[in-house]
Amino acid sequence: MNRITNLFQIKYPIIQGGMIWNSGYKLASAVSNAGGLGLIGAGSMYPDVLREHIQKCKKATKNPFGVNVPMLYPDLEEIIKIIIEEEVKIVFTSAGNPKTWTQHLKDNGIKVAHVVSSSKFALKAQDAGVDAVVAEGFEAGGHNGREETTTLTLIPVVRENITIPLIAAGGIASGKGMLAAMALGADGIQMGTRFVASVESSAHDAFKNTVVEANEGDTQLTLKELAPVRLVKNKFFQDIQELYTKGPSKEELEQLLGKRRAKRGMFEGDLIEGELEIGQISGLIHDILPVKDIIVKVMNEFYNAQKEVQQFQF
Description:
By secondary structure, the chain is α/β, with parallel strands linked by helices. The chain is built from 14 helices and eleven strands.
């Protein structure tokens, strides 16, 4: 066992990103059943919906699973209460101060990992007592760090600064990517975009097909004044860019963004006006597969890549 498989009691050190509108119980349980760690994405769920997904996930898998909690979303106290009441054993937190809830969660027997975008925040997470850190490079889809540090740079820098288990995220969707991340110092990986393009993802089929059809350069980080987010360059994205030419205020950007745009895009399939959050690695994803096949494929690639690397001679 490596440190991640030991910490979470899973077969493979592969964590599924707890992505809003993509990560319901069907995806989380499928990942856990296939030997990884599935995460329910609480960010897009009302508290009662989250409770329902947790209960359904318990019935769908006997293996460990967790809940991803973005701390910038409303109803946070109620969400934490439900997680504890339902005896969830693993929580991944993001977009907030890890000191706020880490000790409370750990006092209730919950393992905690926190998502960061820099070594500075990794150290703060370690000091807050988290069990593991997810270091996410700016290649990742969805909400992102302001520093624009790539995974290739971020992982070794964070590894140099912390002693607790490290999970690499951002731009990883293959066994070769997994091996590269672990060679840089990660103990495991987290994949989001690859699992969006899965049969069990709760994303709309139109959005899944957009991921598969995306090419290199089809996504870009934007809206840094609000919360940096990587989006597909659809009409909504182009509207943002046009507004930027006029030197908009934060309020004008918020007005353009409006409400429920992420749901509209990823869950309801509005490819024109919806917010389509996906990572750069989408350019390397060419099919929609069952989760089990994705994990088998990644692990086979990982073992083959290990053999290829051993043959390098200089």
